[in-house]
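Here is one chain, start to finish.
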Amino acid sequence: MEKIKLEILGLQPSQTQNGSFALVLGEEFGTRRLPIIIGMFEAQAIAIEIEKITPNRPMTHDLFKSFAKAFNYGVREIMISDLREGIFYARVVCSDGIRDAVVDARPSDAIAIALRFGVPIFTTDAVLQEAGVETGAATDADESELTEIINKPGKEVKPFGEQIKDMSVDELNKILAEALRNEEYERAAKIRDQISHRN
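Its structure:
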């Protein structure tokens, strides 16, 4: 199984789910992005480590690191290993230098741990093919045309997820390209999922 290295590109508040955040990962030598929706506390744990802020008391992921070190265990890598029914799965690969152990984890927790141990984050091509969005997929559609697609005359205003259900695949591809140009990865993920359901 070929591993693809990911890097953290951004963490931004979710536009569609209050209290949630979109964590955007990107493949190291490619144009695909992997947006993952995570909770507020997990986002805080990741942001604190990215910004190198030291909390007054250890957070859960800091406790994990202290516990692992006390028993001479380190973390070698994190693998976002699977996507089933819209849920991402991850593994934390640990080692004491002699034995390896693999621990199941939520991707948000695994990434918070990866940051604390300074280890790489990987995924598979299968996960990126299913859930990734291609940033090089831009088309020549202009902004006025895209606004017209979203706001067709006579349409009642619906949540974004409902709006895209009524669109053709061509329309979806146009607004996907626009979302990627604007780096709206969460919106792009919703559009990508809708296109996938049509195929």
